[in-house]
Amino acid sequence: MALKRRFLGPVAQVGASCFTALFQVGALAAEAPSREAGSLTAASTPLAYFLHSKGPAARPVIYLGWALATICVLVCVIIAGMLLIGMFRRRKQQDARALVSEGGLRLVYVGSVLSTIALFGIAVYMLSVLAEVADPPKTPGLTVTVTAYDWWWKADYGDGETHFSTANELHIPSGVPVLVLLKSADVIHAFWVPELAGKTQTVPGTTNRQWIQADRPGIFRGQCAQYCGVQHAHMAFEVYAQPQADYDRWYAAQMSAATAPSTSQSMRGSKLFEERCAGCHTVRGSKAAGVQAPDLTHVLARRLLAAGTVVNTPENLIDWVQHAQELKPGTLMPDMKLSPAEAGDLSAYLATLK
Ligand code: HEC
Ligand SMILES: [Cu+2]
């Protein structure tokens, strides 16, 4: 009875750890196939980066992850095996000195030396991966400045005449290394597109650098990876890797100013926008020039709203404007109180921001 109890405790513990490890690997392997969205593949499941890397900055990191996971599983299995052997070949008498006199400490020495060698090897491997992903293989073809805000991302492209700003979306040409300059407007955040590169923090007052490159066109989910406040989880973004020609078209469209509203309803909406929203938001080509919030010049061209909180449909758009605090409690945009007529006018105006 006593033997059974002494035996079952450790076995259950070791078994549980091994099971957890295997279960995690299994769950990753069972990842759902990615959906097709036009010519682009929709962002895949959150942990897919453990199975696939989609660019050269992420590849060495994924191999490192596999190597470390393998070592962890091996250690778990070996320790469990030795524990089982130890339990079955247990001494009759509990005499601690017997361990020394019978040379039982030998295994402890061997184990210590082996773990030291393994840990040292892992450290060297990790440092070499860091060096490998530090710089792109060739000069970046594009530089984008990304600024993290509580709780969204601003992306600035070009400069001077060609400058424009967008939010929560990065478009890049596929197959080209892109340098991302990372800034923060408030607290420390971290820029992370798992399938394309490791995490890099955005630190107020500093400009950090991270390069990304997508092998093929696709949509890659990104996420703030440093806890930054209540809506940290709703601080996502997407990277759209496109063939060069598509990217150029997107760039030209984004660079243009908004077209002036032409119907009387959208004109009323535009006036409302200037009164109620322009303190925070910019629409290039109008009087609205606020800087504390996403540039809305081409808000309709975005797939998601409010850093991945909702899909960008006309209903969600006006719902967000009126109930931002319900959809994303604590967000720095207040609920805008609008009469049904005002909501209609504003919707008509927002529908022109293609
Ligand atoms: C006090 C400043 C402020 C005012 C006023 C304001 N907003 Fe916002 N707005 C924000 C902030 C900050 C965000 C980013 C919120 C987030 O993602 O957490 C935002 C986000 C948005 C978004 C989502 C943009 C995107 O790309 O995800 C839309 C659309 C929007 N606002 C429309 C409006 C409209 C229309 C008005 C006026 C009726 C308005 N806002 C008034 C601060 C403001
Ligand atoms: Cu953040």
Automatic annotation (TrEMBL):
<keyword id="KW-1133">Transmembrane helix</keyword>
<dbReference type="GO" id="GO:0005507">
    <property type="term" value="F:copper ion binding"/>
</dbReference>
<dbReference type="InterPro" id="IPR002429">
    <property type="entry name" value="CcO_II-like_C"/>
</dbReference>
<dbReference type="Pfam" id="PF00116">
    <property type="entry name" value="COX2"/>
</dbReference>
<dbReference type="InterPro" id="IPR036257">
    <property type="entry name" value="Cyt_c_oxidase_su2_TM_sf"/>
</dbReference>
<keyword id="KW-0679">Respiratory chain</keyword>
<comment type="function">
    <text>Subunits I and II form the functional core of the enzyme complex. Electrons originating in cytochrome c are transferred via heme a and Cu(A) to the binuclear center formed by heme a3 and Cu(B).</text>
</comment>
<feature type="transmembrane region" description="Helical">
    <location>
        <begin position="61"/>
        <end position="86"/>
    </location>
</feature>
<dbReference type="InterPro" id="IPR001505">
    <property type="entry name" value="Copper_CuA"/>
</dbReference>
<protein>
    <recommendedName>
        <fullName>cytochrome-c oxidase</fullName>
        <ecNumber>7.1.1.9</ecNumber>
    </recommendedName>
</protein>
<keyword id="KW-0479">Metal-binding</keyword>
<keyword id="KW-0472">Membrane</keyword>
<dbReference type="GO" id="GO:0042597">
    <property type="term" value="C:periplasmic space"/>
</dbReference>
<feature type="domain" description="Cytochrome oxidase subunit II copper A binding">
    <location>
        <begin position="139"/>
        <end position="253"/>
    </location>
</feature>
<keyword id="KW-0813">Transport</keyword>
<comment type="similarity">
    <text>Belongs to the cytochrome c oxidase subunit 2 family.</text>
</comment>
<dbReference type="InterPro" id="IPR009056">
    <property type="entry name" value="Cyt_c-like_dom"/>
</dbReference>
<dbReference type="InterPro" id="IPR014222">
    <property type="entry name" value="Cyt_c_oxidase_su2"/>
</dbReference>
<feature type="domain" description="Cytochrome c">
    <location>
        <begin position="264"/>
        <end position="354"/>
    </location>
</feature>
<dbReference type="InterPro" id="IPR036909">
    <property type="entry name" value="Cyt_c-like_dom_sf"/>
</dbReference>
<dbReference type="InterPro" id="IPR034236">
    <property type="entry name" value="CuRO_CcO_Caa3_II"/>
</dbReference>
<keyword id="KW-0812">Transmembrane</keyword>
<feature type="transmembrane region" description="Helical">
    <location>
        <begin position="107"/>
        <end position="127"/>
    </location>
</feature>
<dbReference type="GO" id="GO:0042773">
    <property type="term" value="P:ATP synthesis coupled electron transport"/>
</dbReference>
<keyword id="KW-0249">Electron transport</keyword>
<keyword id="KW-0408">Iron</keyword>
<dbReference type="InterPro" id="IPR045187">
    <property type="entry name" value="CcO_II"/>
</dbReference>
<dbReference type="GO" id="GO:0016491">
    <property type="term" value="F:oxidoreductase activity"/>
</dbReference>
<dbReference type="Pfam" id="PF00034">
    <property type="entry name" value="Cytochrom_C"/>
</dbReference>
<dbReference type="InterPro" id="IPR008972">
    <property type="entry name" value="Cupredoxin"/>
</dbReference>
<dbReference type="GO" id="GO:0004129">
    <property type="term" value="F:cytochrome-c oxidase activity"/>
</dbReference>
<keyword id="KW-0186">Copper</keyword>
<keyword id="KW-0349">Heme</keyword>
<dbReference type="GO" id="GO:0020037">
    <property type="term" value="F:heme binding"/>
</dbReference>
<keyword id="KW-1278">Translocase</keyword>
<dbReference type="GO" id="GO:0016020">
    <property type="term" value="C:membrane"/>
</dbReference>
